[in-house]
Here is the input.
Amino acid sequence: MNSAPDRTPVTDETPPVPAGPGAGADAAADADADAARLKDLGYRQELRRSLGVVGNISMGFAVVSPVVALYAVSMVGTTVAGPLWVWALPLVLAGQCLVVNVYSELTSQWPLAGGPYQWGRRLLGPAFGWLGGWVWQFAVMFGNTTVAYLAAPWVYALFGATPTPGGLVAVAVGILLLCMLVNAYGITMLRWFVSLGIAAEAVASVLVGLALLLFFREHGFPLFTATLGAEALSGGSVAAGFLAAVAVAGWAFIGFDACVSTAEETKDAGRQVPRAMWWALLSVGVVVILNAIAVAMAHPDPASVVAGEDIDPVTTAVVHSFGSWSDKPFVVVVLIGFLACAMASQGGAARGLYSLARDGVFPFSRQVRKVNGRKAPIGGLVASTLISGSALALGLNATAIGSLITFGTAATYLPFFLVSLAALIARVRGSWVPAGHIRLGRKGTVLNVLAVLWTGFQVVNVCWPRAVLAPPGAPWYQVWAAVLGIAVVLGSGLVYLLVKRPHHLLRRAGAGPAAGPEQE
Here is the structure.
């Protein structure tokens, strides 16, 4: 275990920006203020702080990604609940807005990479924070595995080739390596590629969605009150089918915390990162709901999706409406969207590992904490690529990769729940009173309670073993994949916590939970 770097005591007061002529316009003064704030939180500036609010929004937008979200959930949602599934999207979006309220107060006060880890140890202590960070970190890395694997078929579609299990894994590995190289060139290069992805999203999501909705409708709005018999998969229960759709829709709105991952590379992060999270989540939410409605209304035969006869309803709706010429161009813009999502997500994973490793509390911390000459967290990039890439071996077995995808959704909601719970407990105890730019007061407590209830419900809902979300004849372990996956990650984290005692290292470094006076 590496020793932790020297750190100044953690404080919670936001240092004032140096005043003077043109205050706020002087880039050097702003940079000094950001570095001073980071120093007060116990760290020195190692990553390049060059992102504005728009750049930070783009990171969150790319990870949430309307294209990836819609392709990940539209077919499954329609299969389990029929067109009625679309109503799950605004429900999940509203629930995630509750989480963003909590995250906004936290990141406003502690604008640090590796948010769940950094916040948890300050709210409830080093052990809780470390374990929450461990779970979040593996959720993000296995999420990268999922995105790379789901992007691989689009490479085959671009060239008109027939995919094989081994070929999909090989292409997905290539995607992870490409993403690592782009990230290794620094935050500026990453921002350029992500911007290209957002432009592709604008074409594939906004323009195409509006065109489908305005000019190519095959059905009326009453379609969204119908299940088309989808409840048969849930024993005839419409409610059970809709709950399954809510679990599936959860995947569509889980990447906004990527804005937090680049907090130490964002100017005036305490103010701008909360704004960026709201913009990323709400903009993607509107686009995903718009496109889900548009695809359903433009699809020639929604009943075929419910019956499992059409496994790609989005492409079917687009090609049916625009003609066969649109097939390849649409594949290109969708693939670009997937790649941008993978790059931004991998960058977030690397920064989370960097945050843990610089405190010496992650395996091989000395190597993982390294930053290259371009001020990119190269150690975290290599480590996250290795872990995400090794999980791709499951892609050689269709049921195994399905289990990983199921686990990824559940594992992402668990950190949302843990962070919300930690914030609520600290509020009730009086050990944390929000001291950043965003202070919601009593309203914040109410919203925090609702966030705990929402995320707790969604963790149970996503983990609930449902045969309807597994392929016909799937083995028992795929049906129970979410529960088993979380048990493995939590179990391995607890073992590491008991054996290596990383939380003790944090205490010795003077990094106890801070919400006012230092606590041990």
About this structure: Residues 126-159 form the longest helix (34 residues).
